[in-house]
Q: What sequence folds into this?
């Protein structure tokens, strides 16, 4: 009887171990794929952090604000229009309005490094 209990315990441990190993492999593969889609390297790490903090990818944010390319003026124009259209006082949706705000925040994160790079290329002591 003890022999069968020991076999059941060993078999159960093997099943759990295999399932854990498979889940770990899937998680590693998913993580590598996400890093590859984000661009890899420091830029990929920055994008992954931005995605995690805002809860949206760059592509999702651009779809929400109906953008084809990342243009600060177009982002602002589309944001203001969609935000006003979805105002709860005008019969709009607070949920959609909050998604629009989150999309703008995500795009602002993406645009910020470009603005700071442009500022750093300007001479600071120019007359």
A:
């Amino acid at each position: 009887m003890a022999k069968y209990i020991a076999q059941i315990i060993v078999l159960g441990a093997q099943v759990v171990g295999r399932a854990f190993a498979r889940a770990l492999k899937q998680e590693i593969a998913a993580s590598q794929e996400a890093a590859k889609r984000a661009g890899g390297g420091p830029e990929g790490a920055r994008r992954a952090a931005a995605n995690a903090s805002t809860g949206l990818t760059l592509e999702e944010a651009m779809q929400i604000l109906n953008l084809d390319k990342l243009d600060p003026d177009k982002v602002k124009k589309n944001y203001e229009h969609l935000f006003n259209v979805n105002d709860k006082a005008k019969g709009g949706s607070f949920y959609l309005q909050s998604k629009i705000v989150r999309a703008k925040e995500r795009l602002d994160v993406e645009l910020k490094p470009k603005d700071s790079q442009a500022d750093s290329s300007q001479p600071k002591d120019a007359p």
